[in-house]
Amino acid sequence: RKSKRQERRQWEDRVLELAQKGAVMAALQYLEETTQDVTPREKFFTFNSVMKQCVQSSDVDGAKACLQSMLDSGIEVPLSGYKQVLQLQVSTGDTESAQHILDLAISNGVV
Prior knowledge:
The protein is mainly α and 111 residues long. The chain is built from six helices and no strands. Helix 1 (4-20) runs parallel beside helix 3 (40-56). It is globular.
């Protein structure tokens, strides 16, 4: 029988594997469906890993979806999380929705 730690590790590996394949939406859905036994801290770090994967692959939509999923899950996203998405948006010319992310940051009190 697997320990809780092994189960969580396997869960995290699965989420990251999906994200690395570019299936960010599937990774986020899996993350949201399987987080009942996961601490908020573990959840945050796993979401953060997905976010980093999006940034590395210049996946603006994935990064925005990841940020929104974090917020929907009740995770307090630090300013650095919003910054990652904003920098990616600016670098890819997605300035229109950058305003939305900035508004989100302001409404959540991180700016």
